[in-house]
What we know:
The protein has six helices and 15 strands. The protein is α+β, with helices and mostly antiparallel strands.
Amino acid sequence: MMIWVGDRSLGSIVPQEEALVSVLDHGFTVADGVFETLKVAHGWPFALTRHLARLDRSAAALGLELPDHEVIRDAIGEVLFANAPLMGTHARLRITYTGGPGPLGSDRGSALPTLVVAVARSAIWPEATTLATVPWARNERSAVAGVKTTSYAENVVALKYALDRGASEAVLANTRGELCEGTGTNIFVVVDGEVLTPPLESGCLAGITRELVLEWFDVTERALPYDVLELADEVFLTSSTRDVHPVVRVDERTWDDPGLIASRLREEFIAKSVVDVDP
């Protein structure tokens, strides 16, 4: 794969083995960085404008100089063109933006931010998926609550816990005992025919697919108890790579088939995303 590596203003596309970042980069030493993951379908990145807007919000939350959208768009074009023969029909595009080389501590240096744009072929998710609850909580009062930072250690631990139990995703409560989010997904439940999802005040990420589902369909944001997962008629996830993804197992609770409402929303979401790749 060919990867674009540079700073906020300048960079170049190089083979994967030559894509180097300083070991003193703040994104490496203290996870001082932000990122976006986009799906690429048939060579086109989906909802790029929304992802770049969220990248700005995340960078601002960390106090990073805002990225240059023109530089990023050009880098994406180079990466997708160079890797077209290897991507297949579905790929995952990653934009990483860090504090750049800095001191060996939390204080940030004066270097330009580091920018990396990479793509990788991705498998297609199955029609339905499985979840595991975990014994840890999201801190909805954290300084980086709802920010898409490169500090993903909590997610790595929680996801491993879920994978070890045969699930594809972990779902977390917040410190108030409310349903919050997955490690890389937003979560929705259907109760008595009503589609519900935790509000941003729960500490969850403002997911791009979540945002589109709220705009395109009849969905209500509501604080929900964590144990709603034991009572809900249906459960589904959203993410940039999963789209709308029905759930058929949460811990020991199972459904024979994907929920009717979740399945309908999945079909309609896919149809809408094909018509407009940058909604």
